[in-house]
Specification:
267 residues, alpha/beta, 8-stranded mixed beta sheet
Length: 267
Amino acid sequence: MTHPREEVRARLRTDRPHSARVWNYLLGGKDNYPVDSEAGEIILKTFPEFAAVARLQRRFLSRAVRFLAGEAGVRQFLDIGTGLPTADNTHELAQRIAPESRIVYVDNDPLVLVHAQALLTSSVEGACAYVDADVRNPERILAEAAKTLDLSRPVALTMLGIMGQISDAERPADLVSTLMSALPPGSYLALSDGTNTNEALSTAVGVYNGQSANTYHLRSPQEIASFFAGLEPVEPGVVPTAAWRPDAGRAEEDTADVSVCGVAVKK
C-alpha cells in the first residue's frame, strides 16, 4: 500500500515543470522548484513578455471579481484552476466587497491545495473550501462544491488559464457547458486563455510542452470565445485581456495581445 506522503510526492512531480508552479515563478513567487524556475527562464528567453502577460491575467481576475461581487451582486464563486495563492485571491476580492461571499477553490496540484488550506482563510461571515479535483471531472467538482455553495442560487464560475490545459480531444467546450448547465440563471462565467496569434509565444509554449508534466494548448480568439456559447456576454465581450474594463487612470503594461478574456451571464 502506498503511504499518503509517498502519493503526494509522486503527484508533485518535482522532476518536471508544473503549470501552477511555473506561473508562480513568472509572477515573482517562491513556491516553485528549480525545475519550474528553469522552465520559466526558458519561456522568458523565447518570449520575454510572458511574465507581463501573467500579471495582466491576474489583474483581469481582480477586475472580474470586483464586477461580479459588486455590480452583478454575486455571492458565490467557484474558482477552477486556482493556482498558488498570491495577492488579491478570489475570496479576498469578493469578501472585501461582500464579506458573506462563499468561495470554493478547485485544483489538482497537491502543492496548491496545501498552500490554499494554509493561506486562503475566509472572513467570519463567508466561507472558503478547497476541492482536490481535475476540471476533466466536472461532476465531482459540482458534487464537492455543493457542500459549500447553494447551487440553486447564482454562482460565478472563474476559469483563468485552465482550458488551455485541456486538449481538443478532451472536448473543453463540453466541460464548460457541463459546469454551466448545473448552475442556475443569473450565474456567470469569467474565462481567459492564451491565443495562438503570436509566433514567439507559440514557440515558447512548444518548448515548455516538451518538458512539462502537462501540456498547454493555445487557441484562436474565436475558439476561446466559443466557450461562452449560450451565454449573454457582459460588455465589452470577449476581448484582449488588457481591454476588459481597464481600471481608470491605470495604464496596463505594454505587451503583445496574446490572451483574450470575457465575462458572460446565464439567462
